[in-house]
Amino acid sequence: MQKIPDLEPKVLQDLYQAQKTEANIKVPMKPKTRPLTPDPDARPKKPPDKNKWVWDLYEDLSKLLDIAIEPLRQYIKEFDRYLDILSMDPDREQREL
Questions:
Q1: At a CB cut-off of 8 Å and minimum separation 6, what does 50 contact?
Q2: What is the tally of structural domains in the chain?
Q3: Position 30 in a domain
Q4: Tens-place pLDDT, residues 50-95
Q5: CB 51 within 8 A of CB 26
Q6: What own/partner pairs with CB < 8 Å and gap ≥ 24 does 79-82 have?
Q7: Measured in Å, how far apart are the chain's first and last C-alpha atoms?
Q8: Cα–Cα distance, 90 to 83 (Å, whole number)
Q9: Residue 9 counted as domain residue
Q10: Which pLDDT tens digit goes with each residue over 5-28?
């Protein structure tokens, strides 16, 4: 009988909610400055920054976004020759007539 699991807490979760113990979850955060790789020969030894992967991922995404946006910048440059027309204020033009 001891090996049979108790189903009541699983079925009636609302009744047993107060008995649950909550565990804190560690959240990775992007470091404010670039994490340095510690010198392996230095004493005392320093552990590497646990969130270095977040910094690396942020840098990789930034580079990829810059590459993805470059064609849009070139497309916008095509409209430079129409800036005079695009910057016109039709209401002001109407009043001057």
A1: 28
A2: 1
A3: no
A4: 889 999 999 999 999 999 999 999 999 999 999 888 888 887 766 6
A5: no
A6: none
A7: 97
A8: 14
A9: no
A10: 777 777 777 666 655 566 677 888
